Amino acid sequence: MKVLVLPSWYPPDGGSFFVEQIQALQQIGLDDISVLYAEPVGLKKIVRDGFGSANKGFKTDQNEVFGIPTLRRKFFWLPKCQFFNLFLQTKTLLTLFDQYQKDDRMPDVIHVHSAVWAGWAAYKISRKHGIPYIITEHRGRFTFNHPSCRKKVKAWFGFFLSRIFGNASRIILVGRHLINGLQKYIAADDGRITVIPNGVFTDRFSLKEQQKNETFTFVSVGGLNYLKGFDVLLRAFKILSTNLSSKVRLEIVGDGPEEQNLKNLSNSLGLQDQVVFKGRQSREEVASILRKSDVFVLATRLEAQPVCFIEAMSCGLPIVATEAVPEEICPDFVGRRVPIDSVDAIASAMKDVFENYSSFDNHIIREFAVSSFDFLKVAGRIKRVYRQSIENNSTSGKI
Questions:
Q1: What would the pLDDT profile of 385-397 be if each residue is shown by its tens digit?
Q2: Pair (282, 176) in one structural domain
Q3: What is the CATH number of the domain that holds 313?
Q4: Nearest to 160 by CA among 188, 184, 189
């Protein structure tokens, strides 16, 4: 089985979990997987590196670190010109596909990660060559669980998304709630839809360290931007720490555009001795931080299906999260879900978990993560979708 992956973003532009998913698929026997990536180059990079450096041409890369054959080509990404960028990205991916098939190679199935906008190239390729394509939708904007979501889904998207989703062989949602914003383009009961969550190599994480810490530690991981809700978390933590006689601590892992504003907020709330900003950390260091913590908190305003959430469960940590997180991945024995943007609700849930900590079983939480989200299990489900897509395409006479 030849699989061609078209991610809408990819390292070095994020998307490390796409790489890990491919590696998991390789581990279960799919050894002919290639990636085509149109890499956006913004004006900042052009100014920083110079036009000649930024505009290096077509490059074929057998990435030794990832172990994945990758064809990538840069294209110029214009700020606030998403309509034009769609065509630039598509043109680049079609050029890469022409290069891919030069040796008479033709994939059996194309796997698109997020319809916006690698999906348009897959649609074009499928129309021309009869190759089935699968879409895994990751973008939290399609949850429609926060006012900011609708602003990110423009009216003109409809022309493209109705065709992209309408002609896909299979549609994978990382969370059922993504259908909220996709119902304009596909019916909620469309038989092509299946829910397969993001995965984690759970063997890279282990149960939290059992020694008794003098200070009870809450931890949160994510990009320091508005949508992740760290401002809400800091205000909630202030309420919590004021109402508890015990020592509590909050560690925040990640970086982003709101980092300095969040540090200023922390200081203005008088939390400088209780809140630690750890910055961006490697996956290994994140695992170490989680093992030394007691509770994971995610005050996010917008989420498809958070990988950091699964990593925390893989360490057996109880969870406090907002309702942006799908209910199916946060049952009662894992933790508490509260309304989005509610400082008081977050603070109350953190206090509840703190005071009833002994009622949470770290082993059961980890087992839930392993049984539901381990990457090898997730990869097995994706492989079955590939086979179904290929078989259906063959039966319909499109090949």
A1: 999 999 988 766 5
A2: no
A3: 3.40.50.2000
A4: 184
Whether 179 and 338 have beta carbons less than 8 Å apart is answered as no
Q: Which domain holds residue 137?
A: 3-199+375-395
Are 197 and 305 within 8 A, CB to CB? yes
Residues 278 and 251 in one domain: yes
Domain count, the chain: 2
Rg of the Cα atoms in the chain: 22
If one counts every other C-beta atom within 10 angstroms of the C-beta of residue 16, the result is 13
pLDDT for residue 326: 85
- CA nearest neighbour of 107 among 166, 55, 44, 32: 32
- The pLDDT tens digits for 18-32 are 999 999 999 999 999
pTM score above 0.85: yes
| Residues 145 and 52 grouped into a single domain | yes
Query: Would you state the pLDDT for residue 346?
Result: 98
